[in-house]
Amino acid sequence: MAKLYIERAGILKKFTFILIIIVIICIVFSKKIFSIDHSASKSNLYVNVFDPKSLKFNFYQFDQNQNKSTLLFSKETADYTAFAYSELNNKLYFADGISDHTIQLFENDLITNQMKQLTTEFNNVDFIQIDKEQKIILMRVLLRDEFRNFHIATYNLQTKKIQIWDEENKDRSVLDFNYNPNNNQLIVVTFSENEDQKKITEANKNQTKLQPIKYSLDVYDIEGRKKKHIANVERFISGASLASDANSVIISYDEAVDSPISHVVEIDIQSKKVKSLLDSSGIYSKIRAVKYDENKNGFYFLSSMINENKRYSILEIPKESVLSYYDFKKNKANTVWRAEKSVIVNYSAKHF
To answer: Which residue windows are transmembrane per the record (predicted)?
Structure first.
């Protein structure tokens, strides 16, 4: 009888031990299954909108989770400007004109509402972005003695030092660039000014449509060092973005310089294969300013609601200017933010 009791006690201990293990496993898996995936939450977007009636730029913070827009800053100016926002310091960086008719870099403290001019040495400043440490401003600039040859320049907010990339090159000009904070690199689109002028002269002489020139797509680090050449593209490029894994780029382009019809394609950097992603239609006309999201699940882009059957003019104010997101898995674009009879100039978020 005692022997039987001991055997039953041993079995009970084993059963209790197994039960404890099962409970622990269930707890661990339940945490994985029912915990909130914070990485999937949508980050705030910052949207810069130009109102042609009031000649004001309105800078909004858009909370995607609450679908709520908050006006952070408004300024009247006759010149288009991109905005870059430092969440860390609650400061806004933009371009504005000064008394000598040049466009310079400015800073506005959104807490004190104090404005400060940061540069004096440029003829023009645009395409303003900020690095992931929020210490370096990246911008496209024209130097004082130049009118067509655009460079990339950086402004160090701590040391106040300016670095101009490839300053001595008088032929290569920057069409566009986009900084990716996830890999601290830029995709830069450049072209030859000599080739561009030649194409324009030929089109005018022969009374033919302007043909696209050869654009070079290259990857640079934050210090201005060229890391990799991706491709040469003969299209009217309107936007480019480097993926966070640095394995692919997307570009948007128009069919002609005066055409609202646009396309978005993805280029695999290693294989050079090109994949079609999106064609313009309806509110998704004149697609531009494409940007991968941080996880490479899709991309954001700007577009305009305009008549695709008419020739497009850069001075045309669209019925609607639209910020949208294209989801790779769903193979579908959804509208994120709209501006009626206004122009969305640029947008940004913490991770792109």
So the answer is: 12-30
